[in-house]
Design brief:
CATH architecture of the largest domain in chain A: 3-Layer(aba) Sandwich
Radius of gyration of chain A: 23 Å
Shape of chain A: globular
Largest interface: A-B, 38 and 38 residues
Distance between the termini of chain A: 41 Å
Number of helices of chain A: 14
Number of strands of chain A: 18
Oligomer: homodimer
Chain lengths: 405, 405
């Protein structure tokens, strides 16, 4: 049987012509004779931002339909360049965009579209003659033919969605790191790469700030049980494989430390709450697809306090939305900036009270003020000041990942 | 009845965000309430070259299919930006690319494709609600969905082809000059703008080097008798209208001086010619769509000499082709660079021998060596050294265009 592999190269992997040549060489060297290869590429690094800046310099509130049509051109350029480089080296290859392959998305939010359908037939036809398919990541097209973008990091989603549609044998995400680490090595020098990671842990890591994989693409891979591998396009190695092996999952314990900086906490104070405030907020945010990191409500007598946590990327949109809502309903609100979340990810954390005890003890020994704690079956997090993050991460890594070495 | 106007803005007209804002303002100010407007845009100036340079830096002989897919992205960016700017100013507008509007082309030469069909229905539907359609120039798509480019200056062709498909009332080409001049004002300071120009003369001017309009688009407009107007996007004015009025054509005489620099002359010497050499050369050039400026054969006893003239743009491709052919057939060949063609364009030139006499007298008085002469019903040309062009142009303009002022 022929195997089918989907490989995705991000913006830095195709960031220069020299890098594109290297990727072409790698593909030619590693392609098995009978292997079918679909390669998804992002725009050359910096290109999407260059285009976005053009748009926002032109007008403060550009049409989302036009933004999508414009910012997805960067992928078409890098896809064509990679196909050229492959052809030049004697490997038949063709570039395709989302419209050409009918990568269909919904139409509500043109710059944060979600893939609804991919025609496997079109792609299978294009895969004939043993040629490599180079596909624009990040792009989609609506039923009516409008161009859409999948949102930041959407090329990962493109790759995983293609792998699912084609029932690929493996989806390989090439990045600038050589796998999943127990913590961010820039923050924790002793962090080390893991060979394999269970799906649930990977999902949690991505949700809690690991930048290596987008959680949407992890979730999608999980839905179809596609083996997903993260590896480096700059150095050789087997990377980290995300697996669905129940036996291994049960024996696993801690998978890694994850963190996210630049969080903003919103505190909303409501007098005489009606009881529907939480759902009102959650719905308004969902309508605009503003991603919320967490939401908590505390109620004391005739007043309620709701705290919400947003990443730096989402906070601009959240600010507009929350200010409008609070004005409408006469709620008072306040934004507090400069928070980080440090999270321990692992299977069965809540069934082990000692883990939480060690976690909080480590932070309190360093006199780090904890603003909030978040606890689930798969993770244990603390919201702390940005400035305290490095020492917190190193201390927690030492306790949970270095003791058994 | 609603009128329908197609307007085309070139690369310098949309070269900066400031320029795009100005174009948006102009469109809003001049759009009649009941007028339907299709606006065709080129890439922001320099963008197509930037992309081409990327490709040729990556590989010396890139796939034409990929070049076409890549270099047409510039138009998508400028179309989206203009649509955004219009929306921002309260004028409903949407950008569309060639695939979205089914602007079909042939598939033989992906970077020099020719439009074969445009679906007027798709465009009419998109023109509903009084919104402005902003269309990517230069782009096409094949029946099988591959992206094609129409060749340099192809945005003019896009505009004229759309005007034909939609039976537009007028096709307006906005450029950096405010109309058609009796000669290039940079070369001839006394040159002046003409209000109207007959189709045949415009066609000839374009063929003979006038850069204002691409001759392919002039020919297309003529085929469907679309009134074509050249005007400036930088200053107000009525520009120059190309018309099909037979009565006016008959009374017209000289329309202008046209010139082209940087020509290369190839001299091919053939011993014992078979008689099919001319057609062999012409066919080979046509197959690669290399545009020939002229071809001449002289035969003396058992030897033939063929001289061919190429523009700077075409000469690179011509060189490869001619060298191959000459080696194959054991012909000797030689390239002579640095020629210019100066042409007088007007109706009924050949029926007036005095015109030719004055033309050659002017050049001989200046001691300008004439390499070759070309003569037709509509034009009279001399091939002279590049360096002699300015004084030749000024002298001829004085005789034919300044005496009656």
């Amino acid at each position: 049987m022929q195997s089918l592999i989907v490989k995705k190269f991000g913006g830095t992997s195709v960031g220069t012509l020299e890098r594109i040549r290297i990727v072409a060489d790698q593909l030619i060297q590693t392609k098995q004779a009978e292997e079918k290869l679909v390669v998804v590429v992002s725009a050359m690094s910096g290109e999407t931002d260059r285009l976005l800046n053009l748009a926002y310099e032109l007008c403060p509130n550009p049409s989302a339909r036009e933004i999508a049509a414009m910012i997805t051109t960067g992928e078409q350029v890098s896809a064509a360049l990679l196909a050229m480089a492959l052809c030049e080296k004697g490997m038949p290859a063709k570039s395709f965009n989302a419209a050409q392959l009918s990568i269909l998305t919904d139409a509500e939010l043109p710059t944060k579209a979600r893939i609804t359908k991919i025609s496997a037939e079109k792609i299978s036809a294009a895969l004939a003659n043993n040629q490599i398919l180079v596909v624009t990541g990040f792009q989609g097209v609506t039923e009516s033919g409008d161009i859409t973008a999948l949102g930041r990091g959407g090329s990962d989603t493109s790759a995983v969605a293609l792998a699912c549609a084609l029932s690929a044998d493996e989806c390989q995400i090439y990045t600038d790191v050589d796998g999943i680490y127990t913590a961010d090595p820039r923050l924790v020098p002793n962090a080390y790469r893991v060979e394999q990671i269970p799906f649930a842990a990977m999902m949690t890591l991505a949700k809690l700030g690991s930048k290596v994989l987008q959680w949407r693409s992890v979730a999608l891979a999980g839905k179809y049980q596609i083996p997903l591998r993260v590896l480096s396009s700059f150095k050789e190695g087997k990377g980290t494989l995300m697996h669905y092996d129940q036996a291994q999952i049960e024996s696993a314990k801690f998978s890694g430390l994850s963190h996210q900086m630049g969080l903003t906490r919103w505190i909303i104070k409501i007098k005489n709450p009606q009881g529907n405030e939480l759902s009102l907020l959650a719905e308004s945010l969902a309508q605009q697809q503003v991603l919320l990191e967490s939401i908590h409500q505390t109620q004391i007598h005739h007043a309620a306090e709701i705290s919400l946590l947003f990443s730096r990327e989402e906070n601009a949109q959240a600010t507009v939305l929350l200010n409008t809502l609070c004005e409408q309903h006469h709620w008072s609100c306040e934004a507090q900036h400069g928070f980080a979340r440090i999270s321990l990810v692992g299977i069965g954390l809540s069934s082990n009270p000692e883990v939480a005890a060690s976690f909080f003890a480590a932070l309190s020994q360093l006199n780090i003020p904890i603003q909030e704690t978040l606890y689930s079956e798969l993770s244990l997090s603390a919201i702390i000041p940005d400035s305290e993050l490095p020492q917190a991460a190193r201390a927690l890594h030492k306790i949970f990942f270095e003791s058994s070495i």
